[in-house]
Design goal:
The complex is a heterodimer of chains A (about 120) and B (about 400). Chain A has about 120 residues and is an alpha+beta fold. Chain A has a single domain, classed as Dimeric alpha+beta barrel (Alpha-Beta Plaits). Helix content of chain A is about 25%, strand content about 35%. Chain B is mainly alpha-helical. Chain B folds into three domains: about 110 residues; about 210 residues, no CATH class; about 80 residues, Serine Threonine Protein Phosphatase 5, Tetratricopeptide repeat (Alpha Horseshoe), CATH 1.25.40. Chain B is about 75% helix and about 0% strand. Chain B contains 21 helices and no strands. Classes of the chains: A alpha+beta (about 120), B mainly alpha (about 400). Chains A and B meet through helix 3 of A and loops of B.
Chain lengths: ~120, ~400
């Protein structure tokens, strides 16, 4: 069963993510995921100001600067993990360094309905 | 009895005894509560068709399980998205067959189901309804009426919760020690919520709500069987039984509300009190105190009035203090204040009431009734009247409202 851990951070903490302590904590967390053999993929994200939004309407490509709406919290990073069930996913989410000040949304990836043997087709 | 009604009665009996077990067994293996319910529903329909022709099978649960697993496999075949689970379902089926053939008693996985229903990842408002539906097989419409929401809204809430269990893969397992206490408290609280929802409407003894209180006690008894060494499970059951024992005494013969300390103890149910006391004693032997044991112990002291004719208020004060240490719920803070007053110190009781944060008591009827009572003891009639009026305006039970208005008018 694969889950996305979506890290929602406030502006305040987002601004501190490049501090050495934050970087070290993030790296250690990534290594722990790898060591446990549950890491599928993931990354931190640049700020929403660096984002460009694309949509296609009536065959026409529309490109906008930035994300849709100004929000106080935004997606700061994500990880995809492969674990047996939600409780294990929640354990990993709780270990995320951002969980102490921001929040980590745990979302199952679209796939098998069954927890046991429910791997996504690759 | 005709053949058909005999079949119907047999199916009903099996359904009552085995529904929760069968759902738990299937859902624990598929992770899909709704799918298990559908399959089992089909199996019951098939039983209605077959049993009055072929007779009731020797192991009705095994028969139902056999049909249900075939339905699960059919459903998986029909559904392309779930095709990959077919092998897995086959595996369930084999396991189910083995279990059905080998054991005298069907395996009981309802504890796992209880922990799933009260998992913190499930919307809080759905936990108790979900538990009632899956463990006891109570239909959504009846649950809806008990929780004062429309059947459509309740169905939707239940469907959402079951989808969450399946899609997020909430595991069917009993949590380990670090989480055990908190997760257990969710299970206990959900059962108690079912009980209090049933308790709140008191007048209509035959109403859905009254039945809900009995349902909650049924789950409480099951829980004690499933975790015989957990004192809080015994404590919760004892608490519910003590309250339930007094149901008939809560109203006079002409429907007037009778407060606990004025109830005719002859109208209390002795067998229920005895059962409650037995569980409280069992719980005490484990020497691990908890919220429900303390609350049950308070009720036990009230129950003791049937024997001694008086209430040991100082002991009740101590128990409320224990409760406040564990986690001060608004109910126990108010209870402690009243107990202090009844133990002979109304001024201290009133001071304790005054310490409760104002934002917690705005709409809390028992606080205003307690305040009225304590002010009356302190001979502050005008203030007492105001408090009782406020309490009456917050009461949702007609008889209780009338009683509080009478106290407000100084008639009692």
């Amino acid at each position: 069963m694969k889950y996305a851990l979506l890290v929602h951070e406030s502006q305040e903490y987002f601004a501190r993510r490049k501090e050495p302590g934050s970087i070290a904590a993030g790296r250690a967390y990534g290594e722990a995921l790898q060591a446990a053999g549950v890491f599928v993929g993931g990354a931190g994200l640049e700020s929403p100001q660096a984002a460009t939004t694309v949509s296609v309407r009536d065959g026409k490509r529309q490109v906008h600067d930035g994300p849709y709406a100004e929000t106080k919290e935004f997606l700061a990073g994500f990880a995809i993990i492969d674990v047996p069930n939600l409780d294990v996913a929640l354990e990993w989410a709780a270990r995320h360094p951002a969980a102490g000040h921001s929040s980590v949304e745990v979302r199952p990836l679209l796939g098998s309905y069954f927890a046991v043997g429910g791997n996504l087709p690759s | 009895m005709t053949n058909e009604s005999a079949t119907y009665a047999a199916i009903e009996a099996v359904a009552r005894n085995a529904y929760g077990r069968l759902i738990a067994f299937l859902a624990a293996r598929s992770g899909d509560v709704a799918g298990a319910e559908d399959a089992l529903g089909d199996a019951f329909v098939a039983a209605l068709e077959r049993w009055h022709v072929d007779g009731i099978p020797q192991k009705p649960e095994a028969w139902l399980l056999h049909v249900a697993r075939n339905r699960l496999i059919d459903a998986a075949r029909r559904n392309q998205v779930r095709q990959r689970s077919e092998k897995f379902l086959q595996q369930i089926a084999e396991e189910a067959e083995t279990v059905a053939a080998a054991h005298e008693h069907f395996p009981d996985e309802r504890l796992k189901l209880l922990f799933v229903c009260t998992h913190p990842a499930i919307e809080a408002a759905a936990c108790t309804p979900l538990m009632l539906q899956t463990v006891l097989g109570i239909d959504a419409a009846r649950i809806a009426s008990a929780f004062l929401v429309s059947p459509a809204a309740m169905s939707q809430r239940l469907v959402r919760a079951k989808s969450k269990i399946r899609d997020a893969a909430i595991p069917f397992c009993v949590p380990d020690p670090p989480e055990w206490n908190e997760r257990l408290s969710f299970v206990l609280d959900a059962i108690y919520a079912a009980y209090t929802t049933g308790w709140e409407s008191l007048m209509e003894v035959s109403s859905t709500l009254h039945a809900l209180a009995s349902d909650a006690i049924a789950i409480g008894r099951t829980l004690v069987q499933l975790m015989p060494t957990e004192p809080e499970a015994h404590g919760l059951l004892a608490l519910m039984l003590h309250c339930e024992a007094r149901r008939a005494a809560r109203y006079s013969s002409n429907g007037e509300f009778v407060p606990l300390d004025k109830q005719d103890t002859a109208r209390w149910s002795r067998p229920m009190i005895d059962e409650a006391e037995k569980h409280l004693l069992t719980a005490a032997a484990f020497k691990r105190i908890g919220r429900y044991q303390l609350e049950a112990a308070i009720q036990s002291i009230h129950a003791n009035r049937a024997v001694t004719g008086c209430i040991d208020w100082p002991e009740i004060v101590l128990l409320y203090e224990g409760l406040a240490q564990i986690g001060p719920g608004i109910g126990s803070l108010v209870g402690r204040a009243v107990a202090l007053a009844q133990a002979g110190n109304p001024a201290a009781g009133f001071a304790a009431l005054e310490e409760i944060p104002a934002n917690r008591i705005v709409n809390y009827q028992p606080y205003w009734a307690a305040r009225g009572h304590l002010l009356q003891l302190l001979n502050q009639k005008v203030q007492a009247r105001k408090a009782f009026t406020r309490a009456a305006s917050l009461a949702d039970d007609a008889a209780l409202r009338e009683y509080l208005f009478k106290r407000s008018a100084g008639n009692i």
